[in-house]
Each structure stands twice: as C-alpha cells, then as structure tokens.
Amino acid sequence: MRAVKFAGAAVVAVIIVIALLLVIGIPSGFLTSTIASRVESTTGYRLSIDGTTKISLWPTLNVRLNDLTLQDPKDRSGITRLTIDSVQADMSLSSVWSGHPKISEIIVTHPVLYQPLLRERLPNVDASAKPLALDMDGATIDRIKITDGEVAFARARDRTEGRISAINTDAVMGRDRKVGLIGTARVGEHPTKFDIKATTPAPPIERQTIPVDFAIDMPDVLASQLAGHAELRLNSGAVMINSVNGTLGDGAFNGWASVDIASKPLVKVDLDFQRLAIPLAKSPDGGSAQAWSDAPIDVSGLNYVDAQIRISATEAVIGEARLAPLALDAKLAGGILKAGTANLGAYGGQVSGEVILDATNGAPSFAMHSDLVGVRALPLLQGLAGFDGIDGKLQAKLSLRSAGTSQRALMANMQGTAFVSFQDGAIRGINVAQMIRSLTSGTLSGWQDSKEQSTDLSQLSASFRIDKGQAVTTDLNLIGPLVRVTGAGTIALDTKMMGFRVEPKLVMTTEGQGRTSEPVGFGIPVMIQGSWSQPRIFPDMAGMLDNPDAAYAKLREMGKGLFGPDGGGLGNILGSLGGNLGGNLGLGGAAPGGGNAAGDPNPPTQQPGQNNPLGGQLGEAIGNLIQQGLSNGAGTSTGRSRSLPATPTTPTPQASPAPPDNPPAAQQDSQPMNDVMRQLFNR
C-alpha cells in the first residue's frame, strides 16, 4: 500500500511539473546549436544566440530566442550585420507534428542592421553569395511584425553615421503569395509612412519578376503622396526596378531605376513627371534681418553612394516657384556631385547653369555658374526666397564659389562675380523720389516701406565682384520715369550689412528711358548704411562741405530744371517775399506775356490749363517743400552755410522799376534763397 501511495504521489508530481513546464516554458539551450547550423546552411550567414531560448507548449507552441547576432563569415572586418533583441514565433502544435509548421505570427523586437559605408567600389565582388532568404521547406507564415527597428550606416574611419530609425512594420502574407507591408519609419529627421503590396514568386526568387504596388508619404520632402506600380527583379546583387509608373499628387510619372548593392551602392534613376512638387522650408517673419545660421551642414553622405540621375518634368513646383519645363541631369561619383540644366523654363524666360558640390573634404565646397534671361523676377524671387520687393524682366549672370560647414561660413567665404539687371518693372513698397525729398528734413531709418507705394523703373542694374563675402559694385544704376540713381558700395554677405554712396537725381518728365531732358541732381550724395532690412539713409554732408560751391551750383541747376530755364515759376512762388528774386537767382528771362519775371510790376496772371512751371506732380511736391522751407526759415536764420554769400543785416528796400532806357540796378543776394539753402543742406 505504501508503494502504491508513493507511486501515485510521484505521478502527481510529474504531472504538476509537466503542467508548469508547459505553461512557464522549457529551457532549451541545447537547441541553439541545431538552429544556428540550420540557419547557416540555408542562408550562408552565421547565427549566434547569446541569450536564453525557451519553448512554451500552452496555449500554442511558442518559441522565443533572445540576443541574436547574424554575421557574414566572409567579412574579415568582423562588422556586425544584424542584431536582434528577441524573436518570438507562435505556431500550432498539430502543424508541427504534421511536418508542415504553420506559423501564425513572428515578432521581431529591436532589430538593428549595421551596414558599412564604402568610399570606393570593391573589385571582384562575389555576387553569387546566397541572399538572406529562408527555404521555408513547407512552412507557412501568416504575419511578421517588426518593432522599433533600425538601419545604421557607419564608417568608423570617417566618424560618420546615419540611421533609419523607429521602423515599425506589419507584414501579412496570404495563401496566394501576396504580401502586404504597412509601417512607419524616420529617415534621418524625416517621418515616413509606407504601404507596399507585392506578389512573391515560388522559390528561388532570383531573376524572377516581382510586381509591387507602393504608396509613400514623406511630408518634409514630398508635397503629396507618391504612389505607383513597378516590377522588381533581383539579379546578382542588383535590384532592377522596371516599368515604374504612378502619381505624385495630381501629376503622373514614369521611368525606371536600379540599385547595385553588391558593393558601394550605385543608384541609377530616370523619371519623367507631368508635375513635380518639392516643398521648401519657409523663412520666418523678418528672415532677412536674422543672422545666417551656424548650424553645421553635413553632406558627407555623398561620399558613400554613387548615382546617375535624370529628372524631367513638364512643370516643377519648388517651394512656391513654378518652373516649366524642367530637365535636370546629375552625376555623383567619388563624393563630387555635378548637376546641370540647359533648358529650364521660368516665368517667360530661360535658365541654364551647373552646380558642382565637392564633399570629399571636411568643409564642403561648391561652385556654380548660371544664366537667367528674360525671367519675370517677382514670382521667381517670391517663390524661392519669399522676396517680393522688386518686379521686372530679370537678366543675370552668376559665377560663384565657396566652402564652409554652415550658412554663415559659406557666405563669408563667397568668391566670384555677379551681374543683375531688372527692366521695365517696379520697386515695390518704396517710393524712391519721396525718400529723396524726405532727406531734406532729416535722416531716414529703414526703407520706409509702404504697400501702397512703388517706384517704376525702366532699368535697375549692377555688377558685383565678390571676395571673401564682400560684394562690391561701382556701377549701380537705377533709371525710372521720375528718378535716376547712380552709385557704388559694398554688401557684406556674411553679416547682412551694406554701405552705399549714391547720387539720386529727380526727373521732371514721365518719358522714362530715352527722354531728352536732363535729370536734376539732389545736390548732395546720399549714404545708405546698416543692415539689409533697416539701413540708415542720410545726406553725405561731408561730401557737400568738401565742395560747397558745386553744391550751390547744383541747386541753381535744380531750379532751372524744376521751374523752367527762365525761372518764371520760381519767381511766381517767391516774388512776394524776395523781390527781384528771379534776377538774384540768375534765372531772369522773358516771362509769359512779354514782361520780365523780375522787373515787370504787373506780371500776367497764369490761367488754369497753362503749362505747369513746376514740371508736373513731382515738381509740385518739391515746390511745396521749398515753400514750406521758406515759411519756416525766412528771416529767422541764425547760421550761414559755407556755400552762401554774406547776408545783409539791413533789408534792402525794393527799388522802383527803372526806365527801359536805364541799365538795371545791381542785383543783391536773396535772403529767402539763402534760407532755402540752409533748410536743404544744414539740417
């Protein structure tokens, strides 16, 4: 009886232990060597299992492997190819007993694929190595789930590393060999979503066509979803992608591509788009006033891939700029990228040029040359740079080169030449003539922007010689119907500062380019100094004081230009205050109606509709300014300009008209005119 009881207890204990093992798991480290040898014989890669291996039999057969490492035994560098935190597989026990395992789900946690970066393509690469693909041997898999995966690209010698991180995918396999792959990832700093559907052929898949449908969302890079169809073929380490067609937003595209991954990747792409849209990061408000960024620019990745790319488009939208048509050819080899276009249409004009980017050294360098002919400036500059201050037909020739690891460094090291010309347009938001007039009362701060005002221009041109970020011009030339500006100066590209000395001239006609009348000088050079967005604009008083007689002569010339060669208009304005002012200014001559403007006591009254002596609307505005200067300064001036004669302390009585046969009385200097001069030049 005691033996029976003991046997019964032993059986119960064994049942309890078996039940616990079925639920908790059976330690099965003895199976790791068998699994590793099977993987190596099937794939050619060596598998190491450094963690625990467990098998659970309830409620389904579950196998869990921890800390796996997969390596290429032919890789002498010993670079790890794949590490996995854990792999877990669930399958029915009955399918295992039948010899055809049916795996319902495989969960792969935190796999990291390490891919070495190569600067040169390796010779005699063995392309016959077995691809990483399991011979299922009758087994089926319903679902594979990858959680928190990564692909790490690294080259220790260059201290370079890049990653595709946060890979989360769910792959579902149907019984008709159709595979659906949905997931998300982060490519660098760009979030990405993808949805891929393919039909896999029966093994082996080498050199067999695999039809693939794809949809990719990458908001930071593509303006809309990229979706399409392609036919893939694996051929000795190369992936051939043929019959590519699809849509990018509302535009269709077609072409082909290939990727050779046997050594240093070689990518070939030829795509033609109906409409290609590429978003650009928008500059923050006041971006022109902000300093260039010191954030490092890293283009070292160009050293580890070679490429031959041709992109064409009926219409291309880059940021807000629209280009049509587009034909771009690019070649990347040995870390040097060359991209050029010979037939780029842009807003009624043509653009051609080439850009060369050299990433072989620590500080990347670039060189470019470009020609723009007949391009509408406003939409182009507004679309590419958010700049809407100028409009007109743009012609430009650029030849630039620089090197640096940040925006500021690139601007500070800029070298080259540039010629820019705008024709038949306008400077938006700025009235140059009004700015010139405002300078008679004080220094201006900023461009005095006003959305309601603009300056029509027939031509605005300048050529620059650029050295170490300093762009110098000596031939700035603005020609407009009402204003002319010439000058010279320097633009500091790195600090966004400027310093110009210009000579503005007012034009009392709206004939614009080709007019017969000469412009009227302001009399004093104007200085423009400070930041691009808010410079100080003020008269160059030192320049006037260097030659006061010339400044006074210019004002006399201004009087002739503004009020006619006979000075009649000025006499009508100032005659009541100055007496014989036309003669004192040296503007005497025959007045309308046959009388003398300075000596006829009964000058004829000007009738409405007659010729405006002030030369039009701008002349009227300047005439008002002179009247304002007279009312504020006549008889109250306490100082004297170096360019003015001495002012009498006792007013000279007005002389009676002399008989016609007697010579006129000696003309005296005009106190009101002296006050005008002080108002214009001494404030």
Describe what is shown at a glance.
This protein is α+β, with helices and mostly antiparallel strands. Helix content is 19%, strand content 43%.
Q: Quaternary status of these chains?
A: single chain
Helix fraction, binned, reads 10-25%
Count of individual helical segments:
12
* Distance N to C terminus: 129 Å
In terms of DSSP E residues, the strand content is 35-45%
Q: Which class best fits the helix and strand makeup?
A: alpha+beta
How large is the radius of gyration? Answer: 41 Å
Number of strands: 32
Tell the overall outline.
elongated
The major sheet is characterized as: 32 strands, mixed
Mean pLDDT: 74
**Poorly predicted ranges:** 127-134, 510-516, 558-622, 624-670, 676-683
Could you characterize the architecture of this molecule?
- With 683 residues, this protein is α+β, with helices and mostly antiparallel strands.
- Helix content is 19%, strand content 43%.
- The protein has 12 helices and 32 strands.
- The protein has a 32-stranded mixed beta sheet that branches.
- Helix 11 (617-633) packs across helix 12.
- It is elongated, with a radius of gyration of 41 Å.
- Residues 127-134, 510-516, 558-622, 624-670 and 676-683 have low confidence and may be disordered.
Blueprint of the fold:
Elements: H1 2-24, E1 26-27, H2 32-43, E2 46-49, E3 53-56, E4 61-71, E5 82-91, H3 93-98, E6 102-116, E7 140-141, E8 143-155, E9 160-173, E10 178-187, E11 190-199, E12 209-217, E13 226-235, E14 238-248, E15 251-260, E16 266-278, E17 306-318, E18 321-323, E19 326-333, E20 336-346, E21 349-358, E22 365-376, H4 377-385, E23 390-403, H5 407-412, E24 415-428, H6 432-438, E25 444-445, E26 454-467, E27 470-479, E28 483-492, E29 497-506, E30 520-521, E31 526-531, E32 535-539, H7 541-546, H8 548-563, H9 568-578, H10 581-584, H11 617-633, H12 671-681
Parallel strand pairs: 6-7, 6-8, 16-17
Antiparallel strand pairs: 1-3, 2-4, 3-4, 4-5, 5-6, 8-9, 9-10, 10-11, 11-12, 12-13, 13-14, 14-15, 15-16, 17-18, 17-19, 19-20, 20-21, 21-22, 22-23, 23-24, 24-26, 25-32, 26-27, 27-28, 28-29, 29-30, 29-31, 31-32
